[in-house]
Design brief:
By secondary structure, this protein is an alpha/beta fold. The protein is 30% helix and 17% strand. Strand 2, helix 5 and strand 3 form a beta-alpha-beta unit.
């Protein structure tokens, strides 16, 4: 059974995994500040950013907080994003949204930027 199949069959464990990724990104080596500080997001102007496989929106929320001209759409599996919009603060609630999307399905959203972080690794060949 692949990790993908495992998480699909065990949504509670998928959320635990999501929590571990969030904890990992709070360490200095993987901090989201690297994404924010090392790209000229201002140069995009008003832009739509899709965070593909973006989990509970950790990166997208930080982008929205730091760059008020960006609209962020976080895509992930239903069992991962379920209820995530309820956790948004007022300062980003109107610019961050979540939608169910499987990374192995064709992209249906037109955007200015597609952001992919830690999602293109460790997948069995049958998914590609």
């Amino acid at each position: 059974m692949s990790v993908y199949d495992f998480f699909q069959a065990n949504p509670d464990r998928a959320l635990t995994f999501v929590g571990s990724l969030k904890a990992l990104t709070s360490t200095p080596d993987y901090d989201v500040r690297h994404v924010i500080d090392n790209y000229d997001w201002h140069s995009l102007g008003r832009a739509q950013v899709v965070d593909v496989g973006g989990s509970r929106g950790n990166v997208g929320i930080q982008l929205a907080k730091n760059f008020p001209h960006l609209k962020i759409l976080v895509q992930d599996k239903e069992e991962v994003i379920h209820g995530a919009e309820n956790e948004l603060s007022g300062e980003v609630k109107d610019r961050v949204s979540f939608v169910v999307h499987d990374i192995f399905s064709p992209q249906t959203v037109e955007a200015d930027v597609y952001y992919l972080r830690w999602i293109l690794h460790n997948w069995p060949d049958k998914y590609w």
